[in-house]
Amino acid sequence: MNSPVTGDPRTGRQRALVPVLVSLGMLVAVVSSLGAPLVPTIAAEEHVSLNDAQWSLTVTLLVGAVVTPFMGRLGDGPRRRPVILGALVAVLTGCFLAALPLGFGCLVTGRALQGIGLGLVPLAIATARDALPPQRSRPAVALLSITTVAGVGLGYPLTGVITESFGLYAGFWFGAAVSAAALVAAVVVLPPAPRRAAPRLDVPGALLLGAGLAGLLLALSEAEVWGWDSPRLLVLAGVCVLLLAVWVVHELRTARPLVDLRLTRDRTVLTANATALVAGLGMYLLLSLVTRFVQTPREAGYGFGASVALTGLVLLPFSLASMAAGRVVPLVARRFGTALVLPLGCAVSLAAVLAFALVRGQLWELFAIMAVAGFGIGWMFAVMPGMIVGSVPAHETGSAMSFNQVLRYVGYSTGSVLSATVLEAHTVAGRILPTGDGYRTAALLACGVWAAMILVTAVLPPRHRRAAATDAAPAAAAAPLKEARR
User: Fold this and answer.
1) Do the beta carbons of residue 450 and residue 372 sit within 8 Å?
2) Is residue 6, in this structure, part of any structural domain at all?
3) What tens digit of pLDDT does each residue of 128-160 get?
4) Is residue 161 in a domain?
5) What would the pLDDT profile of 224-253 be if each residue is shown by its tens digit?
6) Using an 8 Å Cβ cutoff, are 238 and 214 in contact?
7) Rounded to a whole number, what is the distance in angstroms from the first to the last CA of the chain?
8) By residue range, what is the domain housing residue 377?
9) DSSP assignments along 307-363, one per residue
């Protein structure tokens, strides 16, 4: 077949395309679900500290943040199909490495390879836009964005049950099985990319971005060990900020950038990107806090001593509520106007972290908190793709969505590391577990971030673009479940 599949719904590949693209989003969620709930188990099995074990989650998100723009730029040209298949092979290899009991170094290496899979969602969104007619592509794009959030809540309890029943490495074997199934489906169903000129790869831009992000996250994760006023910490942070500043200048000046930052001059795109960064940070900060809190033994004076499986179940309401949010967004937009969509989502997320800061003495309260958090995050993630897709040219979809996804992953990584850093700061010397005040401090920090974001999302988008951008996303989000069944 020499051209992408277009509007003939009678073909088998056409009918199977959306489910296969959704399976790629679910694979991203499964890869993510092999992180946070398993951190305490990894620390115990591999005989490392909780702070070190946290890197089994952080390294995946970090690699995802670095490779996603590179994959997105490749995906805007004729190489999209081989890039997707290559990423799936990397994820499969990473799952095998992590599943082998060869030590903590091998596990982290495997988790790093799995991070390459986090660049799949923007390519799936670009494929949906190019290969499907508009009436099918819009709901598919919204569904793909929500799937990565909802799948985390579904993947956590499943991997938790597998790990508790069969051991730590069984969870990674499960990831390998899912990756293999997704690879076979993609080989059979994925259409070729549109006939466009192959983009020139911005290797200097990729190196600058990767080095800057990696160094900043390393500085954040080691701040408590080195000391916040440590010269090497300050030098590392300064160098990384300089690298990122040089990257921005380079991207604005080069003819074919890795990420076309000029697109962020559109205030609708800028709002979506800022929201992605903060939503990612708030999401993983809360997920990391909750998963560690519920597994803490009661002898510490807090926590529930929950198993990995029960910890996963605590996150299940997060997944279900995020899916429900996609159905509610169009109703709110029609009744109150599109200008309130993102600020309301931020307000719901603020309510969730504030509740965690103040009320977490009963297990049922955490179930309720995660439901509220999932609703807020799913609400925002359902809106953002429509804002971007409606504001950028078709040939820039992969790159623009990749940059948005990068900001999510930077937020994820920062939230993950920030939770570990704050809890480490509240751990008394000679003790393993932090005090309960550490959880409240981290949650209140998240509250401040969400409060600031409410103001940003209310003020930043221009009114003449806001309606068009958000109307497309709620309309797309209204029928994601129906589209998945087609």
Assistant:
1) no
2) no
3) 877 777 777 777 776 777 776 767 667 777 777
4) yes
5) 667 778 888 889 989 999 999 999 899 888
6) no
7) 22
8) 12-201+258-484
9) -HHHHHHHTHHHHHHHHHHHHHHHHHHHHH-GGGHHHHHHHHHHHHHHHHHH--SSH
